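Supplementary Text 2. Reproducibility record for the structural model of the 68-residue chain.

All settings were left at their defaults, and a single model was retained for analysis rather than an ensemble. We include the record here because the model underlies the residue-level annotations in Supplementary Table 4.
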Amino acid sequence: MAVANHSGFLVSIEGGEGAGKSTVREALQQLLEKRGLEVVLTREPGGTVAGEAIRQLLLDPAGRLAAE
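Retained model, structure tokens:
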């Protein structure tokens, strides 16, 4: 199995609801892309079918855990 070796860095943006995480992410993404850097966005939980399903359960305002 071939293993790719890529240099780069990981940035984590954390904060409560309404703290401006999306605003910071968008500004940082634009800045890095203007400098010619590739940006890969992900979120946790999320990024996969299972992760998105878990995310929806956690974000359900009614707190429902059963499928309708």
